[in-house]
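User: I'm preparing a small set of examples for a lab meeting where we compare how different chains pack in three dimensions. I only have the primary sequence for this one, and I'd like the structure in token form so I can line it up with the others. Please keep the answer compact; I'll paste it straight into my notes.
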Amino acid sequence: MDNRKRLLVFHRNGLFRDCLVNVFTNDRRYHAQSVDHLEREGIDELLCHPADVVLLDLNLPENRAIEIARAIKDRQSETKVLVLVPDDHERLVECIAAGAHGCVLERSSLEDLDTAITKVWRGETFCCPDIVATMFAELSQLHEKPIWQLPDVPKERRLTAREQEVLCLIDRRMSNKEIASQLCISLFTVKNHVHKILDKLDAANRQEAAEKARLQKELGPVSYRVGDQSREISNM
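Assistant: Understood. Below is the structure token output for the 236-residue chain.
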């Protein structure tokens, strides 16, 4: 009798996905399978033949992670969903609400990932400690967002929860390195967020972005004042 846990891996990065499958395939406790999220057949197969554990990339395009988690929950499947969380992420709280049983950072060790899989498979919940602070921040923003975000701002021009975090730190005159340290993300990711913020707000520099966001109420109520010195996107 095959007592191995059936493990499905959904990830936007095919190489990362296949490497994980190879690692777990070599472990006799698992029967691992790679699933391309772009192929609908893979999701349908999951729903028809439930796996024990699904490793689900939070940043799958088109909110596919939330769709998959919710579909598993709606089918009242015994499948446990463990969310793989990149440093640059959105909608973690929504994905957990959709039915995820745990979350672990992508940059965690294989040992930590194995521990997370074992815990959720046993019916426990698991949340990587580094993620807890981010979850509290997202919950806070979800609570405040209906109060201060203007409804007439086009959807494509709205700042994401993470971009709002970055912009608030910019408004506190933090450098990119300081922001990276504060949010536990890479310097490259911070610069990417700043670039998107300047583009969405049509701002020439960081100071102008903070001022425009305040006018649009993207930052919400703030009690501090921006100084006169602007810092460009290349600020280190």
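A couple of notes for your slides: The beta strands are 5-10, 30-35, 53-57, 80-85, 102-105, 126-127. Confidence is low (pLDDT under 50) at residues 144-150, 221-234.

User: Perfect, thanks.
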